Amino acid sequence: MLNLGKWNDLTIVRFTDHGAYLDNTDGGEILMPKAYVRDEMKPGDRVHVFVYHDQSGRLVATQEKPAACVGQFARLRVAWTNAYGAFLDWGLMKDLFVPFREQRTPMKQDEWHNVFIYIDRASGRIVATSRVEKHLFAATPMMYRRGDDVEIFVLHRTPMGYKVIIDNAHAGMIYENQVHGRALHAGERLSGAVTAVREDGKLDVVPGQIGPARFRNFADMLLDELDDAGGFLPFGDHTPADVIARRFGVSKKTFKQALGSLYRNRRIVIADDGIRLPY
């Protein structure tokens, strides 16, 4: 079955002056334009291609990589607008259409918007919407437990922290005191961990990991930082929490846990003026 708006592995059937024609698993053939045809390609080869519609509404295959696929969220720039809606730059020759009815606020050229990409049932075309909440669903305690690893997409900042999307499906929140001085940006993707599943089905999450894995990973990073700094860093138990947060992006608790682990394993020396590698 052909996956419109996604990556497919298709077989080359024949070549023409226009490019290579690929076997459409749903019937017929799909053109991969000449720009993507390589000399070593031959009939029968399988190629990994993204399939969408060209300006004339015909299926076309490309090896260009879009910013996101159907069923995913992305933050995209408005390339241009017309009487029917807005068109977003998503990295392909044909821009991505957002009808007026799917714009949370009227889109203007060169603005950036968070959108969800989907296939419009009426037209069968790939389109986007900035009404992203319609495409999220509530999480349950059966789906997630505290400490579970997740993928995070940052929507925007709020007075409390950052609204985010978890695993391309659920609404979530990163609270301001969990970023430890680091600024997150709308459209940023990062790994994180669940801290709670709320009664409304939204998730509280933090960047990185929690528990022992968090300070173990930071301990490795701290050793690298020490090595890069020539074996000494002027930080220790005496260093204020806000200074640690700005410098390393972790809480003082995580910093002290990492120090303790490294010291017990004789990986560092703790002195009055900071920490050193033992050489």
Task: Give a summary of the structure in a few sentences.
The chain is mainly beta and 279 residues long.
Keywords:
18 strands, mainly beta, 279 residues, 14% helix, single chain
Q: Topology as H/E string?
A: EEEEEEEEEEEEEEEHEHHEE
Largest sheet: 5 strands, antiparallel
Measured distance between first and last alpha carbons: 61 Å
Strand order, sheet with most strands: 3-2-1-4-5
Low-confidence stretches: none
Radius of gyration: 24 Å
How many strands appear in the DSSP assignment? 18
Strand content: 35-45%
Q: Helical residue percent?
A: 10-25%
Determine the structural class based on helices, strands and strand pairing.
mainly beta
Instruction: Assign an overall shape.
Output: elongated
Number of helices: 3
Mean pLDDT: 90
Protein architecture, described:
With 279 residues, this protein is mainly beta. A hairpin with a 2-residue loop joins strand 1 and strand 2.
Layout of helices and strands:
Elements: E1 7-16, E2 19-23, E3 29-33, E4 46-53, E5 59-62, E6 73-81, E7 85-89, E8 96-99, E9 112-119, E10 126-129, E11 149-158, E12 161-166, E13 170-175, E14 189-197, E15 203-207, H1 212-228, E16 232-233, H2 241-248, H3 252-264, E17 269-271, E18 274-276
Parallel strand pairs: 13-15
Antiparallel strand pairs: 1-2, 1-4, 2-3, 4-5, 6-7, 6-9, 7-8, 9-10, 11-12, 11-14, 12-13, 14-15, 16-18, 17-18
Helix pairs in contact: 1-3
